[in-house]
Amino acid sequence: MRSGSRIVQLNRRTHSIIDETAIVKKFGVSPHSIPDYLSLVGDSADGYSGLPGWGAKSSAAVLAKFLHLERIPKDCREWRVNATNASALADTLCREWDRAVLFRRLATLRTDIAVFNDVEELRWKGPTNAFDKFAAGLDAARIEERAATPRSKRAQSDRSGAES
User: Fold this and answer.
1) Hey, which residues does 48 pair with through a beta bridge?
2) Helices (H), 67-129
3) How far is CA 162 from CA 11, 12, 156, in A?
4) pLDDT (tens digit, 9 = 90+) per residue, 67-113?
5) For domain 9-107, which CATH number applies: 2.40.128.20, 1.10.10.10, 1.10.150.20, 2.60.40.1120?
6) What angle do helix axes 97-107 and 86-95 make, rounded to 10 degrees?
7) Which of 39, 84, 117, 156 could lock onto 104 through a cystine, CB 3.0 to 4.6 A?
């Protein structure tokens, strides 16, 4: 993540580049607070719910001031932000602390794990030797045949079968 006008997010769906200013405008928090924000509000695309009661506006108001979960005081009277039902939000955060930290971890892009050495390692080369045993365990006789046949040939075969 970079600051300022340098790229901080590429939206692959809309092919748009969102910089720091656009992140703050859209979410109400700086890019550095986005994992904390997502831990509170949740992210249905990634399959975690966030914390009950923590919506976009309350999360943005609190994180705009405190930036990260650890900096949010347990006593909501110290917040001095415009957050609806701050007392309930503080109670939820205290009660659900471990979940919030887990959700933040899930929302954080990891750069410390080697995934592959060369992009060519990601190229599909057909099923591995372990696939036969896997397919047999599923009792799926045609899976091996389908895995070995390129999709384009399967589509042609399916079309010719439908025409007869």
Assistant:
1) 43
2) 86-95, 97-107
3) 39, 36, 10
4) 999 999 999 999 999 988 999 999 999 999 999 999 999 999 888 88
5) 1.10.150.20
6) 80
7) 39
